[in-house]
Amino acid sequence: MNRFLAGGFWILLYLVVVLAPMFLMMIQPTPPGRDFWVEFSLALGFVGLTQMAVQFLLIARYRRITAPYGVDIILQYHRQIAMMAFVLILAHPAILMIRDPALLTLLNPFGGTWASRFGLGSIVALALLIVLSVFRQRLRLDYERWRLTHTLLGIAALVFAHTHVSLAGEYLNTFWKQAMWKVFGVAMVSSLVYLRLIKPALQRRQRYRVAEVKEERGDNLTLALEPVGHPGLRFAPGQFAWLKLGATPYTIEEHPFSFSSSAEEEGRVRFGIKALGDFTRSLKHVPAGTDAYLDGPHGAFSIDLVPAAGYVLIAGGIGITPMLSFIKTMADREDVRPVLLIYADKRWETLAYREEIDALTERANLKVVHVLEDPPEDWDGETGFVTAEVLARVLPKEKITREFFVCGPPIMMDVVQQALLDLDVPLERIHTERFNLV
Amino acid sequence: MRHIYAYRATYLIATLIVLVAMLFAWLRSQDVPPLQQEEGMRHDRPYAVQVAAPPYVASSVAVKPSRPRHASGPSRSSVTT
Known about the structure:
heterodimer, A: alpha/beta, Elongation Factor Tu (Ef-tu), domain 3, Rossmann fold, six-stranded antiparallel beta sheet, six-stranded parallel beta sheet, 12 helices, about 45% helix, B: 2 helices, rod-shaped
C-alpha cells in the first residue's frame, strides 16, 4: 500500500479506536442525560482512558503500523499524546469539582467511594509515570529501571481507571458494555505480551553472533553481527534495530542503533556506536561469538523512501552512521547520483570513519566537506558549526533538486534545519532522525 | 520534516478528540428529562448514592440499596456511597 495511504489509514483507525467506545456508551439503555459540563467531563474521562489504553499498542513496535511514519515518530506521538491524555483525565474530576465543590471530599481516599479511590489511584500512577519520564535523567534513574517502572505504572493506571469506570457504573449499565471495556483494555495491554514474550520467542529463531568489535576514532566502535542459521534481515539504508546482547532475547535491556553497513550486503550487519552510557561503554569488551538478537529494521529515515536527483547529507558526530549506510549502499548499487556529505565533529583526530569515507569517494559520486569545531593549526577547511553561512558556501547551486538528510545532536539538527529553511530549502525536503526516546 | 508534521498532526488529533467529546456532551445534554431539570444538581453527581436501581439499569449491574448503619443519625457525607 502507498505509504501516505497507509499513514492516513492508521490515523483514521486510531481515531475510531479512541472515539468509538464513547459513542457505544450511547447505545440504549443509557442513564438520563445531565447538563453539558457533567457529560463533557465524563466524555473527557472516556477518551483519556481509551488514549491511555491505545498507548500500549503504540509502543509495541508493530512494523505494519510504524512503517509509514517511522518508529521514532510513533514514540514522539506516544510522549505527546500521553501528556494530553493526562490533561483530559485530570479535567474529568476537575470539571465535576468546580461545578459541585462538595465532590472535593472524593480527593480524600478515606472519605470517598471505591470508585473515586480507584480514579484517584489511576491519576497518581499516571502523574508518577510522567514525572519519572520527564525527569529521568535528573533523577539519575537508569534506563532499564525506568522502563520497568514505566510499564508497571502504565498497567496500574489503566487497571485502576477501568475499575473506576466499572464501579462508577454510569454508562457501563449492561453486561455487554462492561464486557466491551474489559476486552478493550485487555486487548491493548496484550500488546505488551507481544512485545515482551512473542517477539523475543520469534527472535530466538533469528539469532545473531558478534563477529567483530572494532574500535573507531573518537570513542566510537563498529559492532558487526552475523546471522546464525538464517540469511539475516534486509533493511533500507538509514534504518535501525533494537539490539539485545547475551544468551536470552527475553532480557529487558535493549538499545536502538543505526545500521552503518550497506543495505546490499547480505548476511553480516554492522552498527556504528558511540560510547555514551554504561551499555555502549561496555560494548568494546564484548567477545566475538556472543549471542545477539535484533528487533528491526525500523525507521523511515532513508534515501530509499525519498527518491531525488541527488542528496545532501549533514551529520554531526555519531550521526554519521546512517549516512555511511546511505553512501555504501549507493556505491554498491553503482548509483551515480551526486551526494554532498557535510560532516561536523569536534576535532580531526576524533572524526570517526574518515578513512572509510575517503575510500568511498572513489566508488560513489561523493563530495565531502568536514566542519571542525576545534581544527588543527594547518586546517584550511570549514570551522565552527554548521551554520547558514557554511551551508551557503558549500551547498550546490542546484540544491532545490536535492533531498536533505540531517542526523546529529538535537541542538545541531534544530540549527541546521532552521539554516536550511533560511536558505529557501523547502521543509518537505529536510529529513531528520531524532533518537531521543526518553 | 516528519517530526514537524507529526507535531502538527498531534495537535490536530488532540483538538479533534476534544471537539468530539464536546459533541458527545452536547448530544447527551439534550437528553435531560424534565424531572431532573427541576430537581437541580442532586442527580448530576456521577458518584452520588443510588438507593434504588433506576429502570434503565440492567439487573446484573444494579447497585443494591445500602442499609443505613445509623437509622436515626445524620449521614456521614452526601456524596459517599
